[in-house]
Amino acid sequence: MAKQEDVFKKIISHAKEYGFIFPSSEIYDGLSAIYDYGQNGAELKNNIKQYWWKAMVQLNDNIVGIDTAIFMHPTIWKASGHVDAFNDPLIDNKDSKKRFRADVLIEDYCAKLEDKADKEIEKAAKRFGDAFDKKEFESTNPRVLEYREKQKTILSRMAQSLEKEDLGDVKALIEELEIADPETGSKNWTDVRQFNLMFGTKLGASADSATDLYLRPETAQGIFVNFLNVQKTSRQKLPFGIAQIGKAFRNEIVARQFIFRMREFEQMEMQYFVPPGTELGFYETWKEKRLNWHLALGLGAENYKFHDHEKLAHYANAAADIEFKFPFGFKELEGIHSRTDFDLSAHEKHSGRKLQYFDSERNENYVPYVVETSVGLDRLFLAIFSNCLKDEVLEDGSERTVLSLPPALAPYKAAILPLMKKDGLAEYAQTIFDDLKFDFNLFYEEKDAIGKRYRRQDAIGTPFCITIDHDSLTENTVTLRDRDTMKQERVAVADLRRIIDEKTNFRNLLSKI
């Protein structure tokens, strides 16, 4: 556990030191669980958005993208169920006065059981070497089976209790498992109670006439209320999808783990509208498609797994999470949900407007069913950043820190580095920069020894360093250094655009999906 904490501290420190993520309002001592993206973080975040948008909208002729407002009519949140049912189960520790999400305490306990199972597997793998059969060991080892069966039993009981709103049993489960305050070790708990997560605000010039509104807790409802507008103007036939990237806000009481759980965050969602009765087939299809999208990033198939929901949301008839192995364990990265016709039917009822589709093949009007894919952009940023940040020991015994991002996502595609300012090298380097900047985001730097500059570019994930020396002036060649291999080769200036594009183009990711 201590090692995991050290790794996570290094990730947070690196993110700040190299301009990826800063605590928001830091000079005023900040706000809890609110962060700002720095110059490199903004570039990486925008590139992740592009990868999602291109894969979701550009590559699918039956998916279109929109951008809806954060402020929405308050009745929308009544119709969606958020006013009545958007709650977290909270519990306080009487001794430490700290507040926790009861379900997260139980999930963390189960994560420790999974860690114990993983340790058994790791020990066996070392013992048996190449002869080790992981699948057979997992299915036959008594300790692994015991840990996982206990985990399943606990999560199933918790899900059933939350479904029935039996908060007394949730507390009883915490007490039976002897779960303690993770900071103080105290087991002196209050009762569990529900807390609504929506942020309230007002719209209007004066307090007397102002309308009570909410900051949207999700982006999906903006898609649902625009279903007919988009369907008619885009002339789409079912099945078709509507995609959106946007901010959402939740008053998380237990916001933690850096940008994993924040009060202001960004979602990338797609709602796929399908004929009734076909939704579960499309649900399985989108589960596979979304996992393939993640795998194309090259972060390791072993770092992903599906978690099927025991407790279904009020709108769903099937739901699963794609979980990723963060430094603090497997946690939800993306949700795939079969939302039935709940949302459109609810908005029909509360608005008095029909939200139906005429199916010419069936010759009937109906309310479409919906399959949703929803990935947290900030969580995905953390998954990529934490997985790609590595400390390497080189052949000469020296060390380097490298952020081995997929090249298409890197903030800068290449760094232009004149060996020195004088003798016309800086001017020649600037000419190369000015020529390539229309196609690529570039970094230009003259200061410090070339080795130090290489290390800084490794730390922010730049795929190429281009060094301009005296031979460049006479031969029109430069030294091209690869981030991952550190190999250096002499290439013609005229070939730079092609070489950089071949490695950093989004096509490299999209073609793997």
UniProtKB/TrEMBL annotation:
It catalyses: tRNA(Gly) + glycine + ATP = glycyl-tRNA(Gly) + AMP + diphosphate. Transmembrane segments: none annotated. Substrate binds at residues 101, 218, 265-269, 372-376. GO terms for molecular function: glycine-tRNA ligase activity. ATP binds at residues 250-252, 260-265, 332-333, 376-379. Coiled coil: none annotated. Keywords: Aminoacyl-tRNA synthetase, ATP-binding, Cytoplasm, Ligase, Nucleotide-binding, Protein biosynthesis. It is found in: Cytoplasm. Its EC number is 6.1.1.14. Residues 154-411 form the Aminoacyl-transfer RNA synthetases class-II family profile domain. Pfam families: HGTP_anticodon (PF03129), tRNA-synt_2b (PF00587). Its main location: cytoplasm. Gene3D superfamilies: 3.30.40.230, Anticodon-binding domain (3.40.50.800), Bira Bifunctional Protein, Domain 2 (3.30.930.10). It comes from the Bacteria. PANTHER family: DNA POLYMERASE SUBUNIT GAMMA-2, MITOCHONDRIAL (PTHR10745:SF8), GLYCYL-TRNA SYNTHETASE/DNA POLYMERASE SUBUNIT GAMMA-2 (PTHR10745). Catalyzes the attachment of glycine to tRNA(Gly). NCBIfam families: glyS_dimeric, PRK04173.1. HAMAP family: Gly_tRNA_synth_B. Belongs to the class-II aminoacyl-tRNA synthetase family. Homodimer. This is Glycine--tRNA ligase. It comes from Kaistella gelatinilytica. The lineage of its organism: Bacteria, Pseudomonadati, Bacteroidota, Flavobacteriia, Flavobacteriales. The gene is glyQS.
